[in-house]
Amino acid sequence: MKTINRRQFLSLSALAGAGAFIPQIAKASSNEVAAKKKIPTRKLGKTGLKLPILSMGVMRADNPAVLRAAYNSGITFFDTAYGYQNGKNEEMVGEFFKDKDRSTFYIATKGNPGRRDDIEAGFEEMLNTSLRRLQMDYVDIYYAHGLRSTDDVKNPKIINALKKFKSEGKIKHIGFSTHANNPEQIDAAIEAGGYEVILISYNFKLNILPELEAAMQRGVDAGIGFVAMKTMVGGGTEKGSPVDGAACLRWAWNNKNISTAVPGFTSFDLLDNCLLAAHSPNLKGADKKYLAALGQEELLYCQNCGKCVGECSKQLPVPDLMRAYMYNYGYRQPSLSKATLVELSLGSDLCKGCTECTVECPSGFRVAEKIAAISPIVDVPDRFLA
């Protein structure tokens, strides 16, 4: 294989007609964002937790100074996972919080051993590893990570494993995360019982908002709390324009059933923008106008509607491929993009033999171009993706 460096790899975005970009949002002045200004709080279902509406998704952060700034700004809930940055993310979180009063913060992490016969043992290995990295005896929320179907949600092996961890005191509250964003998953969680928190993708661009929000209300009525991710629709547009995160967050908080959001800010500028929204959380007329205009553009967030899967002649997992594309060209996280693709075990020449793409994305994604732009990353050595 011919080796390519990181700069050469990023230039592959030309195949999709879209340049990679780093989302940048104008920095709020120090007068607008006052340190320690109180962030409004909401109850998280029946967990008993009362969280600031703004939390931190630590996934992409690798600078503990940003973590410190978030904590010092009044953010108390931090979301990580077993697989983020190959475990280094949990280690950074653990190192930062090791000397902090445990009553001043809440930690969520996630794991999923995949489809193996001894799934309970797999979950236990992952949780024990996460606790060791975090240097903690317990986490406040543990999510079964990335559940794809109602069968996954109701899988007794998963539910029993999580209940066991709770009875042992290793986790305080049970949840699951999902990119599938399927209202039926919420109903399955209500039916299955045991789940206290669901981490869902939630943003203004979703085509199924009425159905999703109705299911969320049923979940809230059953005592389930909801945490929002992907509120910023991938961070930008295909034209390279950054998204105003403050407007996106205010839109999400307009739904009182969203207890908190976990945007993945990685810089002080992005943190300040999120804090500006948290200190003035009501959705404004200017926000509505901005989001209406933004909704007409092609964004980087795939809605996981699943319609494309049946249209692909090779039955490729198009939503996962689009998520990998977003991780690189929106989040500028090539290592996470590669990890997502490697887990699928599909190789780098996914569309070989196809002369015309049969997928028609409801969101208007140019699917074939995006696959061509992201699939070569599986052959890029890890040293170029740091």
Radius of gyration, rounded? Answer: 20 Å
Class by SSE composition: alpha/beta
Outline type: globular
- Characterize the biggest β-sheet: 8 strands, parallel
Kindly describe this structure.
38% of the residues lie in helices and 12% in strands. The chain is an alpha/beta fold. It folds into 2 domains: 6-21 and 302-384, no CATH class; 41-294, NADP-dependent oxidoreductase domain (TIM Barrel, Alpha-Beta Barrel), CATH 3.20.20.100. An 8-stranded parallel sheet has the order 3-4-5-6-7-8-9-10. A two-stranded antiparallel sheet has the order 1-2. Helix 9 packs across helix 11 and helix 13 runs antiparallel to helix 14. The longest helix is centred in the first third of the chain and has 16 residues, at 119-134.
Secondary structure elements and their pairing?
Layout: H1 6-10, E1 41-43, E2 50-52, E3 56-57, H2 64-72, E4 77-79, H3 88-97, E5 106-111, H4 119-134, E6 139-144, H5 150-153, H6 156-167, E7 171-178, H7 183-192, E8 197-201, H8 209-221, E9 225-229, H9 245-253, E10 258-261, H10 268-279, H11 285-294, H12 307-311, H13 318-329, H14 334-344, H15 367-374
Parallel strand pairs: 3-4, 4-5, 5-6, 6-7, 7-8, 8-9, 9-10
Antiparallel strand pairs: 1-2
Descriptive keywords:
386 residues, 8-stranded parallel β-sheet, 2 domains, disordered N terminus, two-stranded antiparallel sheet, alpha/beta, 12% strand, single chain, globular, TIM Barrel, 15 helices
